[in-house]
Amino acid sequence: MDFMADMAELALASRLRRLSDVYWQAVTAIYRQSGVDFDVRWVTIFVLIARQGPVAVMEIADRLGITHPAVIQVINELEKKELIVSAKSEQDGRKRLLSLSAAGQAMLPKLQPLWDAFVAVNHDMLSRQTHNLLVSLQEMEAQLAERNFFDRVQDQLKKNDSKQQ
């Protein structure tokens, strides 16, 4: 019996985290098995830089919907591994523009077959679902973009308080 599944809505965040952990562990093992020194946490930023580079830190944060400090942390790791390089913007000297280094470019052909396999397996699993998880996630993200979870819970607590009085 899966106790988290039994908790349903109460354990939603925990179940999403558990699912993420299952993926991250498998992807990490696949990178290691393939002899690719790459961290699963880097993929979204690395792919964005590869496809859109040169790109600014704030643009990465905005495009991915993650915090500036989270972007900086990954960028620092990618720079330490010499997979990306940064240069000051000619238009705005305060802005750092990031692009793949020669080593980053050389890693792409090693990563692409793995990513293609990840996409194929995910596509197969999603196609077998009654309710497509990607669509459901998009719907949840849209609802939370309209009104965040914290504010929604605060409203619910107020409703509960008014019912008790």
Automatic annotation (TrEMBL):
Name of this protein: MarR family transcriptional regulator
Species name: Spirosoma agri
Gene3D superfamilies to which the protein is assigned, alphabetical: Winged helix-like DNA-binding domain superfamily/Winged helix DNA-binding domain
Alphabetical list of InterPro entries matching this protein: ArsR-like_HTH (IPR011991), HTH_MarR-typ (IPR000835), MarR/SlyA-like (IPR039422), WH-like_DNA-bd_sf (IPR036388), WH_DNA-bd_sf (IPR036390)
Coiled coil: none
Domain HTH marR-type: 9-146
Pfam families: MarR_2 (PF12802)
Gene Ontology BP term (one): response to stress
Highest taxon of the lineage: Bacteria
Molecular function via GO: DNA-binding transcription factor activity
Xref: SUPFAM superfamilies: Winged helix' DNA-binding domain (SSF46785)
